[in-house]
Input
Amino acid sequence: MKRALTPGTFDPITSGHLDVITRAAQLVDEVVVAVAVSRKKGPLFSLEERVDLVCAATSHLPNVRVEPFDGLLVDFARKMDATVVVKGLRAITDFEYEFQMTALNYQLSQELETLFIMSPPQYMYLSSSIVREIASLGGDVARFVPPCVVGALEGKFASAR
Ligand code: PNS
Output
C-alpha cells in the first residue's frame, strides 16, 4: 500500500490545502494529513480544533485520514509507514523554504520522497495567515476555505469585534 503524508499547520485548513489533499488522494492508496503541533507559530486554533476542521473538510474523501504530530516529519512518516510527502507549491516565494525542507528531510531519511503539486491559479496566493487576517478584519472568507472553517473563524473573531 502506498501511503502519503500531507503535513502542515493547517491554522486553519484552506481550499488550497484541500486541493492538494484531494489530488494526493488520487495518486496513492491512502493519505494521512499530518497536523503539526507548531508551538513556535502560536496557532490561532488549538491542535484539537485544527484536527477537527481538517477531518470535517476531508470527510468526503474515503482514503484520507487525519493525525496530529509532534517532532520530526521523517520520524512521523516512519511511524505511519508513509514513503511519500506531498506538498503544495504556490508562488515562487514558497520555493526556497520548501527546497530547504526537502533537502534536509532527504538527508534525514532517504526512504522518504517529497512530491510537489503546483497550486492552481486561484490558490496561488492563498495562505492560512492571509485568511486569518481577512477574517479578523470582518472580511468574507467563504471562497477561500471549506464551509466548516467559515463558522469556526467567525467564532474566533466575533468576540474580538
Ligand atoms: O503549514 P506549515 O506551517 O508550512 O507546515 C510546516 C511543517 C509542519 C510541514 C514543517 O514545519 C514540518 O515538517 N515540521 C516538523 C518538524 C521537522 O521535521 N522539521 C525539520 C524539517 S527539515
In short: The radius of gyration is 15 Å.
